[in-house]
Specification:
The protein has ten helices and seven strands. The protein is an alpha+beta fold and 245 residues long. It folds into two domains: 83 residues, Winged helix-like DNA-binding domain superfamily/Winged helix DNA-binding domain (Arc Repressor Mutant, subunit A, Orthogonal Bundle); 144 residues, 2-Layer Sandwich (Muramoyl-pentapeptide Carboxypeptidase, domain 2). The strands form two sheets. The chain has a four-stranded antiparallel β-sheet with strand order 4-5-7-6. Helix 2 packs across helix 3 and helix 2 crosses helix 4. The two termini are 31 Å apart.
Length: 245
Amino acid sequence: MSISEQAAGIGALADPTRRALYEHVIAQPDAVTRESAADAVEVPVHVARFQLDRLVELGLLDVEFRRLTGRSGPGAGRPAKLYRRAAQTIAVSLPPRHFDLAGHLLARAIERSADGTPIDAALRDVARTEGDAYGARICTDPAPVPADDRPDEHLELDRMRHALAGQGYEPRSVDDAVVLANCPFHDLARAHTDLICGMNHAYVSGVAEGLGCRHVEARLDPAAARCCVVISAGNPEHRAGTLNP
């Protein structure tokens, strides 16, 4: 779900009736009918139906269909439409932050370090693997450019820019490079710079691998007011060294 979609969902709760219906639904131990929700917040059933369905469209509620009589077969009646809290988490941060991803990577690194691997090395390893998986998942052209061809490095930079935009990095093209105006792990990076910047570098490098971008490199280039990683055109031999921070 994009930031605009998440913001729309949260903004929808500014409406008092919609917010009251949402708060009623999530407070119940089981899914509720629109009739019971309407009674609880004292609005007509048609109003409750419209607002509840809108909350479903926005991803704040989920629906299920169930016969409330406990009977089945002919004559049991149609299943009722029931509403319950959505399983997905909706949170908006501006600028974008992905502390959930950082937590996931740190947890995996702790598990990996149980075999004696230093935690920083384990974190870089799992971050690179996760980035590779993300890049491969969104890649529209999984075949890498042959190393002996003359690659279109600008095309690969564009692919990286598109991929990292989806992760909240706010990439910007500057000359023959892509700078990342936002760090999704900013607060953590300020407190634990070496550990988190190493993780971030490994993740972005993994994204490049997953996309099949063999002629650009992710490198650490810290500067004020932006992410510490910069993606630039580079030969495969140079980049091979940067993929193992």
